[in-house]
Amino acid sequence: MGIARRNSDLGSLKSGWGQALEAVVRHPVDLFTLLPLGELAIAGARLGDLARLEPYLREGRSLLNRLGDPPLWSVPLHWSGLHAAILTDEPAVAEDRVAALLAAAGHSRYAAVVAAAAESWVEVLRGAVDPVRVEAAARGLHDTGLWWDGARLAGQAAIRTADRRAMTTLLECARALQGRPAGVDGGHRPTAGEGTAQVTDAIAGPAQPGLSDREYEVAELVLAGLTYREIGDRLFISAKTVEHHVARMRNRLNCANRAELLALLRTVVADRASNTAGQPWPRRSAR
């Protein structure tokens, strides 16, 4: 389920969800189930079915509370809870998870890294992108083994900033953390259709940060493996129009080739909620 989520493979997530829930039901909640429960919470949020997992998450949180909320076990669950809250568009819940992570930041380097990244992530969702801070947080995640999360944070920040230079810097950071340096093709040979897209890139104008709602729709279907014709049939547009959308996305995200575009789209599309993603979250209310 974790691999499917990170690859934006919604089909595999859906097909595996029933088996995952069955496994949760069969196994009692203990400390060793908290990591898979956290991963499944994000998957459930992605599928819009988190409620079915909530009783087990409550049981896990209750267990931690009885043990005094030990950071070694609670920090990963709070980190997963943050991303589930992002997917379900619950800013208040996300703030609670950030607060819990900040409270545990002194426990270990891992706790400090994810606390800083959580705080930066929520600020990005509010539209406040500090590229230096974001890159430091993203690289911190990478260095502690959370390389996919680091790349995703940088990519999410890149599409939310209006600063062209910051966008370029953050996209380069996302590429580096994915293990795909700029300019490395990875052996991909462009098809005839992609050749046309390269020509379209040249006339599309200067790249702009962010993707339109239609581009997000096209991106999700591209990541699902559909052809341009199949995407066009699904969205009631021509295959040529789909090709132009893909070319424009390449230009907007400053990607050198299709392989690089697909890698970045996995980063920026994976956690986009269906209705409100891309809109700035409200500022934290005064308490």
Automatic annotation (TrEMBL):
<keyword id="KW-0238">DNA-binding</keyword>
<dbReference type="Pfam" id="PF00196">
    <property type="entry name" value="GerE"/>
</dbReference>
<dbReference type="InterPro" id="IPR016032">
    <property type="entry name" value="Sig_transdc_resp-reg_C-effctor"/>
</dbReference>
<keyword id="KW-0804">Transcription</keyword>
<keyword id="KW-0805">Transcription regulation</keyword>
<dbReference type="InterPro" id="IPR036388">
    <property type="entry name" value="WH-like_DNA-bd_sf"/>
</dbReference>
<dbReference type="InterPro" id="IPR000792">
    <property type="entry name" value="Tscrpt_reg_LuxR_C"/>
</dbReference>
<feature type="domain" description="HTH luxR-type">
    <location>
        <begin position="204"/>
        <end position="269"/>
    </location>
</feature>
<protein>
    <submittedName>
        <fullName>Helix-turn-helix transcriptional regulator</fullName>
    </submittedName>
</protein>
